Amino acid sequence: MSKFTKRVMSAVTLGAAAFMMAGCSVAKNSGSKGTTQAHDVVKIGANLELSGAAAGYGNAERQGVQLAVDEINKAGGINVNGHKKKIKLILRDNKSAIATSSSVAAQLTTKDKVAAIVGPATTSAGTAEIPNITKAAVPSVSPSATDSKYTLQKDGKVQEYVFRACFQDDFQGTKAAEFVMDNLKAKRVAIYADNSSDYGTGLAKAFQNTYKGRVVANQTYSAGDKDFNAVLTSFKSKNVDAIYVPGYYTEVGLIIKQARQMGIKVPIVGGDGMADPKLPQIAGPKNATNIFYTTPFSTRVAAKDPFASKFMKAFKARYHTDAPAFSALAYDAVYLVKNAIETQKSDDSVKITAGLAKTKNFKGVTGEITIDKKHNPERPIITEEMTNGKISNSYKVD
């Protein structure tokens, strides 16, 4: 997810200092051809938000990463040109902070000398690690950094060592608008976006650019807000057919709760930031009805696929809960790295990078993935429907 990216500017000085310090620490890798691994292990790093504001996402991804690593190791490891090598996972907490993410990336690449990195979860933390992974020539696969420009440099060229397993914001915002038009037949829509994140504003922009009906209101809120009654009252007076709320479950849950309490029963639609079990807990199960959100992973869809169903059963057996989308994406990110190593027959970080860029028709638990020239995955998207706090339906979107 791209939560907290607007905070990047407020921390530029600190972040820049961290980058400079990290740059000094990676001097040995300057001009190098990347990292190589020991004879019996492949070191894979995880730069994740295990504490701080985005810990919910980071810890879900940690579960997916750990499950994939243990599963691969139990099966004998990664096949590196005919030689099976176990994965040594090096897990580090970036504390949902951009400066920490930068220093974690420096540590993973220069001290730990990992072959590849999974994470971070958020665009802001992911962006912060780019100078250090680029200097070290070590690829990173973010399970969930969705900002449209995440994999690109300022001049539009691709970031060589940056990849992701999730779709980008402009794609899911566009598909949400199409769903609202084609499936919900909504002709009058209100937009209520999180303006404290590029995630919320990016989704809102893509939605509005695609939606052909009438946007009767366009309002914003900020992360941490608690009272949404005034804006929701104005929406009610405009007789909207649906409300598009691109944001995170923490605030969207409260928006749903307050909307239903004042008698607004129209569909409330959002993005994958709503795909968390805590959403109906915050909203109240009965209030979480007629709720829709775009997501890369649906347990209903996955249950019909033997490959994905096997993952779901393993996840539930280990963690005693259904697999959330963020865990599934992180699980796929590890297997994307494994696939790149095995197709390139090498665990050299530069060759892994080349292998990731060449990924075609990769079978993941979240669907088939092909990496495009901008290092974004061409992959399926699903819209889930929630009724009484439970997933009641799912719709594949072409």
Topology:
Blueprint: H1 7-10, H2 12-25, E1 41-48, H3 55-74, E2 78-80, E3 83-93, H4 98-111, E4 116-118, H5 123-136, E5 140-142, E6 162-164, H6 169-182, E7 188-194, H7 198-210, E8 214-221, H8 229-237, E9 242-244, H9 249-261, E10 268-270, H10 278-283, E11 291-295, H11 299-302, H12 306-319, H13 325-344, H14 349-357, E12 362-364, E13 367-371, E14 377-378, E15 381-387, E16 390-397
Parallel strand pairs: 1-3, 1-4, 4-5, 5-6, 7-8, 7-9, 9-10, 10-11
Antiparallel strand pairs: 2-3, 11-15, 12-13, 13-14, 15-16
Helix pairs in contact: 2-4, 2-5, 3-13, 4-5, 6-7, 13-14
The proportion of residues in beta strands is 15-25%
Counting helices, strands and paired strands, the structural category is alpha/beta
- Shape, please? elongated
- List the secondary-structure elements in sequence, H or E: HHEHEEHEHEEHEHEHEHEHEHHHHEEEEE
N-C termini distance: 22 Å
Structural domain count: 2
Calculate the mean pLDDT score and round it.
91
Helix content: 40-55%
Number of strand segments? 16
CATH topology of the largest domain: Rossmann fold
Query: Order of strands side by side in the largest beta sheet?
Result: 8-7-9-10-11-15-16
CATH architecture of the largest domain: 3-Layer(aba) Sandwich
**What is the CATH class name of the largest domain?**
Alpha Beta
